[in-house]
Amino acid sequence: MIRTIIGAILIFSGVVTMVVATIGIFRFKYVLNRMQAAALIDTLGILLLLTGLIVLSGFSALSAKTLLIIGFLWLASPVTSHLIARSEVMTNPNIKEECEVIHDERNI
Questions:
Q1: Which of 27, 49, 75, 80 is most buried, by the most CB atoms less than 10 A from its CB?
Q2: Distance, CA of 23 to CA of 2 (rounded, Å)
Q3: What is the DSSP letter of 60?
């Protein structure tokens, strides 16, 4: 009973986090600002959802696989966000008008 309640709370919290972050994606005007909201979905929202699923299913092989998925997403999300931001900064000719960008010539 308690495991079901805790799992439901975690899943509900994950869904609320994802809804708020999705509204943030549509609210912001520029790509780099939208990426911040999208990163929230990847890290916190998915963590809460998958943790809720682990709590509901109990410890099993499925839980171990879900923990591996959480670990992979936490490693892959910052890398993909960085690559998208870097490509936006490098290819957008109006980036200085949209947001403050400090361009470092050594890191190209």
A1: 49
A2: 32
A3: S
